[in-house]
Amino acid sequence: MENNDETTYAVVVNDEEQYSIWPVAREVPRGWRQVEVTGTKEECLAHIDNVWIDMRPLSLRRAMAEPTAS
């Protein structure tokens, strides 16, 4: 299958440290911020694969790290 997508994408992240990609020609949606990585869809997704190791939202990771009351 041939990939004809010539769009340049940016890696974006939200406050829960969840990652996605977004076309650079479009305004980043509210609640997301762009990180310093742009490129093809494949390049951006490869970056996300390398950095997004724990898929749990930040709030869940924090809640699970809190000591439980006994």
How would you concisely characterize the structure shown here?
With 70 residues, this protein is α+β, with helices and mostly antiparallel strands. 27% of the residues lie in helices and 27% in strands.
Provide an overview of this structure.
The chain is α+β, with helices and mostly antiparallel strands. The protein has a single domain (9-65), classed as Rubredoxin-like (Alpha-Beta Complex). 27% of the residues lie in helices and 27% in strands. It contains 2 helices and 3 strands. The chain has helices at 41-51, 58-65; strands at 9-14, 19-23, 32-39. It has a 3-stranded antiparallel beta sheet with strand order 2-1-3, covered by helices on one side. β1 and β2 form a beta hairpin. It is elongated. The protein starts with 8 loop residues before the first strand and ends in a 5-residue tail after the last helix. The relative contact order is 0.22.
Secondary structure topology:
Layout: E1 9-14, E2 19-23, E3 32-39, H1 41-51, H2 58-65
Antiparallel strand pairs: 1-2, 1-3
Domain MbtH-like: 3-50
Protein name: MbtH family protein
Pfam family, one: MbtH
Characterize the largest beta sheet: strand count, sense, and whether it forms a barrel.
3 strands, antiparallel
Instruction: Give the low-confidence spans.
Output: none
CATH fold title: Rubredoxin-like
Enumerate the strands of the largest sheet in spatial order, edge to edge or round the barrel.
Answer: 2-1-3
